[in-house]
Amino acid sequence: MRRFAGAVRNDTAHFGPDAETFEGCRVLWRGYIANGEEIAAEAGRRGMNVRGATEGHLFAAAYRFWGEDLSSHVLGEYCVAIFDGETGTALLTHDAFGLVPLFWGRTPGGLIFATHLEDLLAATGTGEIDEDFIADHIANAFLSSRRTPYRGLERLEANTSIAYTPHGTKEVKGSGFGPAKGTRSKARASREEFLALLQEGVKAAARAPGPVWCELSGGLDSSTVLSMAARAGTADLGAFSIVYRQYADADEAGWIRLVLEHFPVPWHVLDGDSALPYSEVPDRFCPEPGLHLVDWAGRRVYEEMAAEHGVAAVLTGQGGDAVFFGIGAAPYHLADLAWTLRFRRLFAEMELWRSRDRTRRSRLYWFVNYVMRPLLSYLCGQPIAPAWHRDPSPWIRPDYARRMALRERGLGKPMSGAGTIERSWFLERLSAICGQAARVNQIPRSFEFRHPLLSRPLVEFMFSLPWEEKFDPAIDRPLQRGALAGILPDEVRLRRTKTIYDQPCYEGLRQGRSFVGLLTEDPLVARRGIVDPKLWAEAVAQARMGRTHSLPQFEAVASLEVWLRQLEDLEAGHLTVPESPLSRVATLSDRGPQFVIDRKTKGN
């Protein structure tokens, strides 16, 4: 089941498509369960036989065992809606990291929910736009939070469930994520357990009702996933790559071929040169602004290729930088040494990092950036890592930036309860990458994205390791690189570079005349008082020559412009919201909520 929606009112539930019934529960779900055998074993101990059962039956059993804490015990990537016919209650939940999105809103006497935001809009209309969502989007460039662009409709946050009774609705936090059990101090044992958990995560994600592709970019993370999937004997396995041959800085074909020589699976190539960003204006309504709106040509061809081959799931390498301490990893454990007054160890460790630094930055640099600033941030309840770009771009109107507090929003979201400064920083990065993955997961219509490097047991294992085994001043990802010796070709395993795809982005904007016209001819972001129209036009012109003040913020506002124009097209009838599973319950009269489609968009 890839898509569902429903409505609950009083003690009655209405679903689209029809829910399956198990253990007195009506169940709708999307995604997969990774620990089905553990749930079946628990069921056996409780006198229930669910071996070989469908995932819907496993969800129903888990609900009977753990109730509102289901997501703390069920592993995988999923969202699920359960209606308990015995009590007239309902539970909406998803995996602890929130990788599979679920949206919901309150109605008189009940609630509505859907896996895809546009399915709620087909029932409720766009209504009032949430200006705080727009400000967060601009300040943080594709931040994912509980907000959606539409007031009254929310995104279910990670580690959160919605429990409904005829008397009311409440949010429930799961006990979910935490340190793995046991201690690990020997590097060899850590490598063995790392490989075992990595293999488990990929094998579970690769169980699908059809062909499975692995995204293969030539980087270490996507190569890691493909190698594990191939070693597990995944049936109907293929590799998928976007290859740019005209842009040397973005051409990964040589690295990809090195991996495919070791793991010869069918290779499906999307010609990136013919599907550049900004080369195609979206022809399908997208309910939120996002990077996919400026990269529509590639997304469209990607889905067409996957549909042509009947692909059920695509495995990504997303999350590897955060989980394995790759690009962006920094020695924030130095601040923990200061916080715990281990000054001798602090200065010895700081000197070690400084001595291995190829740019030979000063002791003051290391002390200020990795001791003093993170320690002060921790004590003040602010995010540990500095914001990617705290100051708004110069083409954003100063009065808008002040009114919407863009600089303060750009600080990011702090994470509490981690126990140490280094672990707090880890959770900040994890939260950001999981939110990004969840937003992308509602785009494909014919397949599911799956992210095995964000498998919860693997993440908890990395979270629990002592910092001595996570960090090495001489090289990033020390555990991942060491554990994959003899599995991946050394050229890829020890690769220190990472491709940046700015060049195709700028070239697509240079060639995309229709897209440039959309961005600069009476832009809606200017009408709403967000950007200065003259400075914004200059910024677009400079971007066509490969220069931006902040590319992420430029892309955020460009995607916002496209989305605002789509809302206008909805009002004018030039675009339509796809038929929603909720359309079946749109005329429930006194038996349920009444939905009115309202395509009007409120703006400034």
Defining traits:
604 residues, alpha+beta, Glutamine Phosphoribosylpyrophosphate, subunit 1, domain 1, Rossmann fold, 4 domains, 6-stranded antiparallel β-sheet, 14% strand, disordered C terminus
Q: How would you concisely characterize the structure shown here?
A:
The protein is an alpha+beta fold. 41% of the residues lie in helices and 14% in strands. Strand 1 (5-9) and strand 2 form a beta hairpin.
Please characterize this protein's 3D structure.
With 604 residues, the protein is of the alpha+beta class. It folds into four domains: 5-176 and 580-591, Aminohydrolase, N-terminal nucleophile (Ntn) domain (Glutamine Phosphoribosylpyrophosphate, subunit 1, domain 1, 4-Layer Sandwich), CATH 3.60.20; 187-323 and 430-493, HUPs (Rossmann fold, 3-Layer(aba) Sandwich); 333-418, no CATH class; 502-572, no CATH class. Helices cover 41% and strands 14% of the residues. The protein contains 25 helices and 16 strands. β7 (103-107) and β8 (110-114) form a beta hairpin.
